[in-house]
Write a structure and sequence with these properties.
By secondary structure, this protein is mainly alpha-helical. The chain has a single domain, classed as Arc Repressor Mutant, subunit A, CATH 1.10.10.10. It is about 60% helix and about 5% strand. It contains six helices and two strands; from the N terminus they run ααααββαα. Strands 1-2 form a two-stranded antiparallel ribbon. β1 and β2 form a beta hairpin. It is globular, with a radius of gyration of 18 Å. The protein starts with 10 loop residues before the first helix and ends in a 12-residue tail after the last helix.
Length: about 160
């Protein structure tokens, strides 16, 4: 049985099916980013999204969220800052701590990326039956809630606590 008391599809069987479907979704999702200036990598996009979700996040927390070491996250932020997408500032509570925030250009890049992703997803979703779309949305929302409620390593920065 699963945590909700249901015994329909074993989690390991479902995980294989979800992994296959996720590959198609990730392919559609990342394809949109290839056409968005300044040609951001997937890791750069993840970092910008994490900073947007949690403005003022410190470098250590960002590194944790993107799965990088602190030095690697610092270099990532160097590149994003040089591109004019991110800015660093001294935290008010602890002047030794560095906070991160998006610049207007960084926010615009994410907004443009989100619009492109939405358009790409809409095109694919239009090929699905209405009931299949509803089921997909319901399932993805349940998945998001499970991620946000799960182990700390799986929680999204700025997600529900």
């Amino acid at each position: 049985m699963d945590r909700a008391g249901r015994s329909e599809v074993p989690a390991d069987d479902a995980s294989r099916e979800v992994a296959e479907a996720a590959e198609a979704l990730v392919d559609c999702w990342t394809r949109a980013g290839r056409d968005i200036p300044p040609g951001l990598s997937a890791l750069q996009v993840r970092a910008l999204i994490a900073v947007r979700r949690c403005p003022g996040v410190n470098l250590s927390r960002l590194a944790e969220q993107v799965g990088a070491s602190v030095p690697a996250a610092s270099r990532l932020c160097d590149r994003l800052e040089a591109a004019g997408l991110l800015r660093r500032f001294r935290a008010f509570a602890d002047r030794r701590e560095v906070g991160l925030s998006l610049t207007a250009r960084g926010d615009e890049a994410l907004t443009s990326l989100a619009a492109r992703r939405a358009a790409d997803l809409c095109e694919v979703l239009s090929w699905m039956a209405v009931e299949d779309r509803r089921s997909l949305v319901t399932g993805l929302l349940a998945f998001t809630r499970a991620v946000d409620a799960g182990a700390p390593g799986h929680r999204r920065l700025g997600g529900a606590d």
